[in-house]
Amino acid sequence: MKKTAASKKSAAADRASTTEEAPATEEAPAVRKSAAAKKAATAKKTPAKKTPAKKAPAKKAAPLKRQAPAKKPAVVPKKAAAAVKGVAPAKTVAPKPPRGESRTALVRRARRINRELAEVYPYAHPELDFENPFQLVVATVLSAQTTDLRVNQTTPALFAKYPTPEDLAAAVPEEVEEILRPTGFFRAKTKSVIGLSKALTEDFGGEVPGRLEDLVKLPGVGRKTAFVVLGNAFGRPGITVDTHFQRLVRRWRWTEETDPDKIEAAVGALFPKSDWTDLSHHVIWHGRRICHARKPACGACPIAPLCPAYGEGETDPEKAKKLLKYEKGGFPGQRLKPPQAYLDAGGKPAPPLGAG
After folding, report:
1. Catalytic annotation on 191?
2. H, E, C per residue of 94-116
3. Does the annotation count 224 as an active-site position?
């Protein structure tokens, strides 16, 4: 009986321990599941926290750093731009001569520019109307501070009334002033033309001298006027350094001089003497028609690839065409009676003073 009770007690103890451990073994998976759920929830929350705003800019900044070097080639495409003459970013289009351009390279470039201009203006001529040296010297004096066109519109009345140096020397100043009024500075110009007429009458027998040293002695006649007369009335080579000539040779870096006499010497040394007169015509014509002082028509310029100053003016070809003057823009020239070669090339004579 005692043994049975003891065995019963041990069996009961075994059952009790079994029943106490069973729940423990059942709770373990639940705990694990709950832990796993917590980890999963934490993992879900963590990506949201781990996508900080700091890393996003870092990814965006990287492409910016990569793109920065790509901009450099776009700034320096000189060869590509040089092939296209009408490109808007102008200053990269024409190759600039190096600052250390040799004397030989300068001479070659200057002469090539003159050859190009000779093809563009084969009909270039003095743009003052004249029939003899006397008319030319007077017209050249009157052209100071005005256009050749205005002079050409004014001189027909002057020469109709005073055809010779003797006639003009004896003229009444007030009457001459009235004729010359449209040219501006008419009082000073009246004094000059009457004075040079008297000098021609008294010192040279009424004839215009054909030497530089004699011409510059006449009132109102300087080297520029003298070379115009020598080159166009006597066929003696000379360089006419007017405002257009000065502007262009400096733009082309033929010289850095500013004094007209020094410009004349510097440019004259680049060309044979036989080229001087025509060179003057080519440069002056180009300055009046295309390479203007305020707004050059760079996009319509035939010598753009040779010009160090390309880009100072309008480079768009269509806009540049609207800036062209005289026959290049479809307008009349400056002479009322131009040479036949000019008319044959399509040039139009200027209208007389007072015409529409």
Report:
1. no
2. CCCCCCCCCHHHHHHHHHHHHHH
3. yes
